[in-house]
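ugh ok fine here u go
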Amino acid sequence: MIKTVLGNVSCRSIGVTLPHEHICCYSEYLYSMVGKDYINKEELLNASVKYLKKLKSKYGLNTFIDCTPVNIGRNVELLKRISEQSGVNIICSTGFYYTYEPLFYNISVEDMANYIIADANNVNAGIIKCAIEIGTTLSNVRDFDLPDGHGAVHQPYEYISVAGLLKIIEITALMLLECDNLDVKISNM
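structure:
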């Protein structure tokens, strides 16, 4: 079964798929301040439905994987409406785009994994997004605590390690798989 915003569907029903897309990335904070002057969600809905229907008609599109993470505007209710009106399966993500957000400075790998699992179950997310910007964005984030005690930096303005990011993904994936009662083993890299 594949998890979509409208519920689980058969793997066979996925068909032609756009594998890494975004309906829209935006700031809920700015939207709460400015509203329709910042982004008009009804216009976004209508334009998205029209576009997905065109892709479905012209190319046989059946599934759209929306990789917009929680912290840059993922809007599951909007995705549900777009999916219902377009007839295209939409798979949404859980997880984060690692930015300057203070939450990331003081959260453990296990807590982050637990949050991602709870969110995934709440919105029926089909993918986990853990993304970081290579370059200047990384200069203002910190390393995550690693289980062996290495690489832990408890102040902002350090670099996140790839090992820390991979540990979040590994723990989250294992916990999600355990929720489905699968016997899965992941070896060390």
